[in-house]
Each structure stands twice: as structure tokens, then as C-alpha cells.
Amino acid sequence: MTDVLITGGRIVTAVDDYVADILVRNGKIETIGRQLTAPSAQQHDASGLLIFPGGVDVHTHMEFSLGPSETCDTYETGTRSAAFGGTTTIIDFVLQRQGQSPKQALDDRLALAEPQVCVDYGFHLILTDASIDKLKELPDLINQDGISSFKMFMAYPGILMMDDAAIFRTMRTVGTHGGMVNLHAENGGVIEVLIEEALAQGNTSPKYHALTRPSIMEGEATHRAIRLAELAEIPVYMVHLSAKEALEAVVEARDRGISAFAETCPHYLFLTEEEYERPGFEAAKYVMTPPLRDHHCQQVLWRGLKFDDLQVVSTDHCPFCFNENPYGLHRSKQMGHDDFSKIPNGAPGVELRLPLLFDGGVRSGKISLNRFVQLTSTAPAKLFGLFPSKGTIAVGSDADLVLFDPEQQHVLSAASHHANVDYSLFEGRLVTGKVQKVFLRGNLVVDGENWLGQKGLGRYQKRSASGVF
Ligand code: URP
Ligand code: ZN
Ligand code: ZN
Which protein residues touch ligand 1 with a CB less than 6 Å away? Predict the structure, then answer.
């Protein structure tokens, strides 16, 4: 493999900010210094550019079945889109079905993903069956297969929801082996009653998705999840946190020294519930779970990011097309045209995390540049057992590098993104700051608008313990 020399860029990590050259050898960072020379190496002038460690997005759903629906991005299209957005590692999901062996579910998913993936990847395992015989497999999954995080749902009764006993039993099992439990925290039983009431009153439009998922029920479930983890003495991670009541529960626990962690997503930081007032069925584009919240929640989330009450920004990339064609009704929001409860939950965004957070977070003065790297790369890598090969720019780390132009303006649009989906949550939004070049283990995979990577280049990452931070 050819050496790579990147000169004159401004290297930004979670703690550093300086101008230097980077020499890459065999896919790893060999040397960082001034005035480096390597005549036989591939040369890249990064003057005027920022260099970030490759983004780590710990929440994506490629080729994911959610009830009767399936996301539009394959492992190939979704990870190529991720790379264009400066993300070089994703953690996606294996879904264990009722009665299925977790190990078998992982092996099936690996076989599907491996030939397709364009960036490095790992998996969380979603448990839907926590019977004793299934739980017995988890220690080996953690120690041998590198699956150190397990997602469970406190919502979607009858499909994915787990009761408190199952959650607690799982926590007991994985905690002693370096595992962490990730919770989708919403009170699924209460939400089901609210949905029944809304439909009985003839309220079928998309905005009732939001009205039937109140933020206090996210707060309630978050509090409950953390208390269960506290009793089980295990770290816990709250996914896609959106509500101020949920954040209050995390802050309260962290203040008491509990290992409670949480992520939020760009849509909660840049959009509000006002999107549900869009005319006709347009609002269905914004049907994700939890739903978009009010301006006050948004301010509270930004404060949480700044002061480390929230540790990670992930995308929860879960793309369903707006239109039925070309990928079919089961990959389309149109499934719920006459009944909001049938709209597939989820939205695209894997490509937009870095530009949005740089523009709306760093440039607007809400978070520092170092904090930006911490939130998008370093903290997720550390929390999910990928550090230090991922998440930083240091000698010996993987040469996953993003060359970023902090001044280039561009307009976000479905017409220019690389995801396999026909709309963007941020259509027409002008942002400043654009990914220029992306290296995956020293391979130049993105160069401006050109795709130089290839499917199958991504490597499965066996992760070490999660929740050690
Ligand atoms: O609406 C969402 N977030 N869909 C993806 C599944 C999940 O709950 O993460
Ligand atoms: Zn979820
Ligand atoms: Zn999700």
C-alpha cells in the first residue's frame, strides 16, 4: 500500500489544534511532525483545511426491517453516503428476532454487510428475546465477536418492546462482561393508548405521531432505564435523546456518579415540532421516533452538548422514501398515508452530521471546535470500544482522516446527497463548511465530488468494552 503524506493542515482532535504534516504508512498514522518529506508517498496539500479524525456514527439503520417496512439504504449506498459526509466508521444494528439465536443473527448480518460496506463498521445487537438460553450467548458475543452493546426498546409493544424484567435480566448478564445496554426510552404502553384514542377520534394525519409521543413519557422511560441500570450496576446509554425531561433524568443520574450516557441527533438540534404543521402529507417526512420537540427542548439539548450532559451526536439514519416509487410501498412513508401510526418511523441524515454540526454548532458559537470532534468522533469511539484506533489523530491510530474546508458554502439537498432516498430533512439549507477529502485507513475514498472508494473496503471492528469512559 502506498504511503500518504498530508502537509500543512490544521489538525484538530478533541484536545489539540495545531498545524502539522501527517505521514501514513500501511493504513496507520506513522508520523506527525513539521516539514516531513516522503518523495515516494502520495502527496496531499491540506493548507487552509482542517483535519479531523474520521467521524464515528454509532446509530445507523442500513437495510433495516422495522415491522413491515425496510430502510432504503443498502450497506453499500448508506456507507458511501456516510463517507461523503466524513464518517469513516458506523455502528449499525443486528436485529435478533423472537426465538432466534443472537449469534446466528450476527452471522447473518455480517454475511449481508461484509461484501458491501464502504467504511469500517461494527454492530449493536437489538434483543427482542431475552430468554435465559439466548442470554447465555451474550458473554461470547462480547468477548469473541466484539459486540459490546445491546439495544432494547421500551416502545413498540408487540414488535420490539421489552419489559422491565427482560431489560434488567439482560443488564445483569452483560454488565459483568464489559457490555453496555442502549435504550430506546419511551413508555410504549402509554403511547399505544394515546394512539388508539387519536385514531378513534379520526385524527390520522402525521402530526398525531408527535402528539401521541409526549416528552414526559420519554422522561419517564429514561428515568426508569437508568434506575434499572443503577441497580444492575452497569453503564447505560440513552439513544436519540430528544426531550428535556429525558435529559433531566440523565443529568440527575450523572450528578450522582452513575454511568449514564446519552446521544442526540442533528434533527433534534436543528428542527422543531413546527415541521408537523406542513400541509398535506409533507409532515410525514419528519416522522421519526422520538418526534421533533419544541424550541425549549432544543436549547436544553445544545446546553447539554456544551457541558457534557450529552456525550455523542449520532444520526439515527433510518431512511424511508417519501414516494412509493421506485423502491415500493414498504420502503415509503406512503404506507401511513391514511393512518399516522403506519408511517415508517425514521429519517435520513448519515451524510449531514459533520456539515450541520460544524455550521450550526461551531460557526454559530454554540460548541468549540474541539468539542465538535469529541462529539462526532472521539467520545463515540471511546464509549463503544473503538478507541484509540478510531476517534483521534495520533501515531498508531488508523489513518481515518477528513480534510474539511471551513469556508466552503453548499446547499443541502436530496439532489446532491448520496443516500438512496428521495428527500432531505434539510432541503435547501445553506451551510458553511464542507468535506473535501476522506481517507479510510489511508485509502483516499472521497475527493471532492468523486467517489474513489469501493464496496467491501470497510472492515468489521471487533470492539472492546463499551461504557468505559
Ligand atoms: O424513528 C426512528 N428512530 N427509527 C429508527 C428506529 C429507532 O427507534 O431507532
Ligand atoms: Zn430507537
Ligand atoms: Zn435508530
Answer: 61, 66, 184, 240, 288-289, 316, 318, 345-346
